[in-house]
Design goal:
single chain, 88 residues, alpha+beta, five-stranded antiparallel β-sheet, 5 strands, 28% helix, 28% strand, globular
Length: 88
């Protein structure tokens, strides 16, 4: 699972496999926490994060939503997704 971005100890990843399940989403890792976010609503689908990291991930995703959606399409075509600028 390629890493798309890393910031403030948060790692954002996306599987690149044509058989990855819908809805479009990305995975987040922070210390012992794991979470999955939907691309259409940026809502937490599964898992949990501390409140601060949850807000950071949602803010980052809003800024890079078009890139995330493009990466999802690439991933569904079996292509390696692009890196995305971290939150600064």
């Amino acid at each position: 699972m390629p890493t798309l971005s890393m910031f403030h100890g948060i790692i954002i990843r996306m599987y690149f496999a044509p058989d990855e399940h819908n809805p479009p989403h990305f995975h987040v890792y922070y210390n012992e926490f794991k979470a999955t976010f939907r691309l259409d609503t940026l809502e937490l689908m599964e898992g949990s994060l501390p409140r601060r990291q949850l807000r950071l991930v949602q803010a980052w995703a809003e800024l890079h939503l078009d890139e995330l959606k493009a990466n999802w399409q690439m991933a569904m075509n079996g292509e390696n997704p692009y890196k995305i600028e971290p939150l600064r």
